[in-house]
C-alpha cells in the first residue's frame, strides 16, 4: 500500500504558469550580442544596455534586464 503513495509522490503533475516567452533562437541572439563589440564609447556591455538594444529587435519588445541576466546565467556567459 505504501508503494502507491511513493509512485504518486514522485509523479510530476502539470504545473500552471506562463509559458516561456523567449525560445532558443532569442537566447542565441542575446549571446551573439554579448559576444559582439560593445557600443561606441562603452568599455563593455551592461545588462541594461543589452536589454535596451534587444528591445529594438523584432519579437523582443518586452525583454527586461533581469531576463537577459537569467539567459546569461543559464549559459555561463561572463560580461566582464
Distance between the terminal alpha carbons, to the nearest Å?
56 Å
Spans of at least 5 consecutive residues with low confidence? none
Order of helices and strands: HHHH
Helical/strand content category: mainly alpha
Query: What about the largest sheet?
Result: none
- Shape by Cα distribution: elongated
Radius of gyration: 19 Å
Keywords:
elongated; 80 residues; mainly alpha
Topology:
Elements: H1 2-10, H2 24-35, H3 47-54, H4 65-75
Helix pairs in contact: 3-4
Task: Describe this structure as you would to a colleague.
The chain is mostly helical and 80 residues long. Helices cover 50% and strands 0% of the residues. The chain contains four helices and no strands. The chain has helices at residues 2-10, 24-35, 47-54, 65-75. Helix 3 (47-54) crosses helix 4. It is elongated.
Produce a short descriptive summary:
By secondary structure, the chain is mainly alpha-helical. The protein has four helices and no strands.
